[in-house]
Amino acid sequence: MTTDPLEVAVHVADRLARPEDSGLRAGESWWPQSLAHGAPGVALLHVELAAHGAAPWDRVHAWLCAATWATVTGGPDSHLYYGAPAVAHVVACAADHQPGAYRRALDALNRQITADALSRARAGHARIDADTLPTLSEFDVIRGLSGIGAYLLRRDPGGAALTAVLEYLVRLTEPITVDGETLPGWWAQVGPSGRSDPALPGGHANHGMAHGVGGPLALLALAALHGVTVTGHHDAIARILTWLDQWRTHNGWPYWVTRPQLHAGQLMATPVRRPSWCYGTVGLARAQQLAALATGDSTRRRHAENALLRAVTDPMHLLAATDDSLCHGRAGFAHLALRAAADAAPDPGVQLRAAALRLLEVMHPPGTDAKDTAGQLLTLAGPEFLEGTAGIALTFAATASPSGPVTGWDTCLLIS
């Protein structure tokens, strides 16, 4: 690139300097506490740039004030992408680079998150004891215990709350028998939306990083890589990997498996689908690379890296990407490729990094003015983190450091 990618991020942040000028839906009661669509997600961009020395810290404070002007939600309505864990993730990223700042607020948030994690883990065990199926929001990254576990792994890796979450996830991976039929423990009776879906009679086994078993796999792997394990930890990783091996196709992994497919023991069709972070091969390949690193499986690591490389270079896969977002677009492809490249064997590592930079060039062609690119991205995508320009800008900013994001903002994606 002829332009420093960090410049794109800086210009986006300049356009989002003040919450009142951002275009976010401030009239909606949920927006201050939504990491995906509200103030915390934009605050992450300002935190990362301030930590780089590329933007002022007073913008961070302004956005954190916008995120916390009302009582922060805790309890069963909170999760990594809304309420106390969402706000705490951003505050923690800032506090790591502002020693002594936000200490009281972070302590209060951590107490709430710990209590909620312990309560939700107990509820998960009780549900398993009753031989009933889980909801996706019980265990997934966006709304469930995998997401809360991601925060705990970073902030309190030796604490009782993370232990409780990991012990619950180990049990989640064990088969469950319901009405005489044995199913994977993460089988959901409802559809991906969390509601009954007539297109999925009998429910489904969700594979997504955002809403499926990819999240538990990634958290178990990352915890093991940090030296945090519980009884049955590696067995749980092996059970998920065995399941994913069973359903892998030449196009990668399906988004989910239905009850008819489970009974038939095979997929009915294997269309090319968007290989994104939230669903598809990009996210699942990164989770499996982490699992391979945690278990010392060099063969699986190479297979995962090659699958990810194909997903971000194959023209048919790239055509399935319809936007630039972090969640399910080109920025997500690029960011996960960069993260995987740092942990990959030399040859796929070089190729993954090159592929990531090519994807960024699609969004910001060489010779294009960074300010113009920032304006165009904001016009097309809006300001949000997960599906908008704040997340895209964070991906550009990540290229400024050889080791990736300096604040670790992407731990909320369970990829690092």
UniProtKB/TrEMBL annotation:
TM region positions: none
GO BP: peptide modification
InterPro entries (alphabetical): LanC, LANC-like
GO MF term list: metal ion binding
Domain of life (superkingdom): Bacteria
CDD domains reported for this sequence: LanC
Keyword Transmembrane: no
Keywords linked to the UniProt accession: Metal-binding, Zinc
Residues engaged in binding Zn(2+): C278, C327, H328
Protein name per Swiss-Prot or TrEMBL: Lanthionine synthetase
